[in-house]
Design a protein that fits this description.
- GO terms for molecular function: cytokine activity.
- Immune regulatory cytokine.
- InterPro entries: 4_helix_cytokine-like_core (IPR009079), IL-10/19/20/24/26 (IPR020443), IL-10_CS (IPR020423), IL-19 (IPR020421).
- This is Interleukin family protein.
- With 177 residues, the protein is mostly helical.
- Helix content is 76%, strand content 0%.
- It has a single domain, classed as Up-down Bundle (Growth Hormone, Chain: A), CATH 1.20.1250.10.
- The protein is built from 8 helices and no strands.
- The longest helix is centred in the middle third of the chain and has 26 residues.
Length: 177
Amino acid sequence: MKVQCAALWLLAAALILSSVHTRGLRKCLISMDTHHLEESFQEIKRAIQAKDTFQNVTILSASETLQSIKPSDVCCVTKNLLAFYVDRVFKDHRELNPHILRKISSIANSFLYMQKTLQRCQEQRRCHCRQEATNATRSVHENYDQLEVHSAAVKSLGELNVFLAWIAKNHQEISAA
């Protein structure tokens, strides 16, 4: 009887450890000081959002787009939204104020670093894109495309806090796992 209990206990422990290991392989850590990013954004937030002429429009709706993302899609959505900001938003935004421009450049450089980190995960086949993740990022691009380029870039920069909070939240959950 004791041998059977011990065998069952060992089997259960092996299954639990296997499950934890498999879950860990599907996630990619982003070792980034998100607090620094948030501080940089807070310094320019008011100036950026003051330029937003479409207060009732959202591109990156926190409740719809990001909150419904499943843990298995976090890597893919993060990778796609980082690319969205680097390839479109930061390039489309035109800024004359040197202080704001420096802060945006700092954030953009941090995003490039995060992209490289996620690229390594993708090379190791640990960052998969399911249809739901692709649809979520497609929705962001469609929202962006509905506005004039400059207005869309300003709107997206003004909503950067939503994306930064989502990265921080998901990074903390991944770190605790």
